[in-house]
Amino acid sequence: MPELKGKKANWLKIESFLMKGRAFIALIFVLIIFTIIVPNFVNSTNLVVMTKHVAIYATLAIGMTFVILTGGIDLSVGSIAGLCAMMAGGFINEGITIGTNTYYPSIPMVLILTMAIGTFCGIINGFIIAKFNVAAFIATLGMWYVARGFAQIRSNGLTFPNLVGRAELGNTGFPQLGAGSFLGISYSIWIMLVFMLVAIFVTRKLPFGRHVYAIGGNEKAARMSGVAIDKTKIGVYAISGFCSSVVGLIIASQLVASHPMTGDSYEMTAIAAVVLGGASLSGGIGSIGGTVIGAFVIGILSDGLVMAGVSSFWQQVAKGIVIVFAVIIDQVQRRLQERVSLSQQVEEKENR
């Protein structure tokens, strides 16, 4: 009997390990499938293009990871990205009118103003959730509508085209953000790498990161331990808003145009990437590295379906299945962890 219990405990640990590494396993599986289906799928050109696409998902998902680690959710990230894209387009093409004067900000100022807008939207989310105890789902859903509405209002539903600026106004160079590169690597990929490294440092080394995990693990215990719950929650939603603004800027720069529906449904992609990467929707469990791998799974799946000639309608079906599958895995992981914990407690009692 003790041997059977020991074997059962070992199997539970193996299953738990496989669940935690599910994103990497899924990534290998997806690569193998599309390598078989699509000729020359894995080559340098395709990998660079796919990584550029993944960089957008990963940057958005990194911000979402902080939110989910606290046990929250942010449904507004896609619409904030769209709002920021439209604000940047308006700054470049129409400038800022103050009284009878119109000021055309330089591109660095456009970036700063746009990122400030996205961060401010995130702060509003966090403030409503923390100070008024509104469910994150409801608060961010409201921001989803508000941000998307303001994106439409900014141009009466029209697109800001040809965001190249004018030399005489000193606002040229915006397309470089999406098309430029450093050491042969696209700026969007560098941004993803920098965000990933900074986020890993924050979650592993700084008190803020420990507080984020503590809140997701047990908010009451964290509050009794002296964790600033409200400030931390506002902080994670501000981070999410900031990441959303950067994504909106990258997309507008790559397209050299901004559209009110930029980032549509990106919130679901970000959530799926985070959960596929090993995070729990109940909070307290997850990692930035896992999220980035999860974003690679989503990005390669999307691009692989396009290269395989699958229609856009079936692509939506596939993404929907991935999202549902990710949530199911989250529930299975939670049950496995409970079983592993119970098994360990039984072993400790028997060893005494």
Automatic annotation (TrEMBL):
Pfam families: BPD_transp_2
Residue ranges of the TM segments: 21-42, 54-86, 107-128, 134-151, 182-202, 234-257, 269-301
Membrane topology of this protein: Multi-pass membrane protein
Domain of life: Bacteria
InterPro entries: ABC_transp_permease
Keywords carried by this UniProt record: Cell inner membrane, Cell membrane, Membrane, Transmembrane, Transmembrane helix, Transport
Compartment list: Cell membrane
UniProt KW Transport keyword: yes
Single GO cellular component term: plasma membrane
A molecular function GO annotation: transmembrane transporter activity
Listed name of the protein: Ribose/xylose/arabinose/galactoside ABC-type transport system, permease component
